[in-house]
Amino acid sequence: MSRPILEVIALGPEDAAAAQAGGADRLELVSDMAADGLTPARETFARVRSACDLPVRVMLRASNDFSAGGPAGLDALCATAAELRAEGASEYVLGFLDDDGLADLAAVTAVVEAIGPQARWTFHRAIDRAADRDALRKQLADRPGLDTYLTAGSPSGVDDGLATLLAEAARGDDAGYEPRILAGGGLALKHVPVLRAAGIDGFHIGGASRPAGWSGPVDAGAVRVWREALDSGA
Questions:
Q1: Nearest 5°: CA angle at 195, between 15 and 126?
Q2: How far apart are CA 124 and CA 118, in angstroms?
Q3: What is the pLDDT of residues 168-203, one digit of tens each?
Q4: 48-85 as b/e, with b when 16 or more CB fall inside 10 Å?
Q5: Which backbone phi and psi does 118 adopt, to 5 degrees?
Q6: 159 φ/ψ sector (left φ>0, alpha ψ -120 to 50, else beta)
Q7: What pLDDT, on a 0 to 100 scale, did the predictor assign at position 234?
Q8: How crowded is residue 220: how many other Cβ atoms within 10 Å of its Cβ?
Q9: How confident is the model at residue 165 (pLDDT cuts 50, 70, 90)?
Q10: Rounded CA gap, 61 and 37, in Å?
Q11: Which end of the chain is least crowded, N or C, by CB within 10 Å?
């Protein structure tokens, strides 16, 4: 079994340095966790890249829902994505739903064109709000660069979504299920053994890396606890 990936949410360079010191493999860079994570400033991305050697997946999300914000909002988001790409970003996190609760293919296509054909990206927890998870995966099956789904299996978190995560992990050879499952959203250490046993090798933490809460920074020691748990499988 391959070494699992540990992704940590970072808000700035201090978080990035601490996450790397604790053994993280990758960062999800966001702003404004009061809105569940929005697009960071270009300058923040540049400072984070200078603070660590980890891959950085940059959030592309302009509001605290899962819409692209209409034509004007989508144009602005694509412009921001192009700016981040010019700054050197090559990995991203995005996800948009339409009014029917399925993937907004027009918005996804526009943003993916803005980040470029070589970029790798995660479809985030919008999947947990989808009207039909299986249909959404099949909608996105041929999208260039999509290699990960960040999901708790349920809008309310991994506790309620665990059975869904295990069922989806078992479908890894089916169309639309090839991207890695990155388990996150209410993820706890108690979930690690059963997820690892199912072959899930991606784990995403936010508040779990911050003993003082979102008002405090990432703590290298807290990240290290997760690193050791993932590597041991326990």
A1: 60
A2: 19
A3: 999 988 999 999 999 999 999 999 999 999 999 999
A4: bbebbebebbbbbbbeeebbbbeeeebeebbebbeebb
A5: -90, -10
A6: alpha
A7: 53
A8: 17
A9: very high
A10: 7
A11: N
Cα 125 to Cα 130, 139, 228, distances in angstroms? 9, 16, 26
C-alpha–C-alpha distance, residues 22 and 85, integer Å: 27
User: Inter-axis angle of helices 220-232 and 13-22, to 10 degrees?
Assistant: 40
> Can you read off the two tokens belonging to residue 44?
């923040």
Amino acid letter for position 221: G
Please report, as a single letter, which amino acid is at residue 110.
A
198 token code pair:
């199912």
pLDDT at 145: 98
* Long-range contacts, 40-45 (Cβ 8 Å, 24+): 40/11, 42/80, 42/83, 42/84, 42/87, 44/11, 44/12, 44/13, 45/84, 45/87, 45/88, 45/89
Cβ 56 vs Cβ 45: under 8 Å: yes
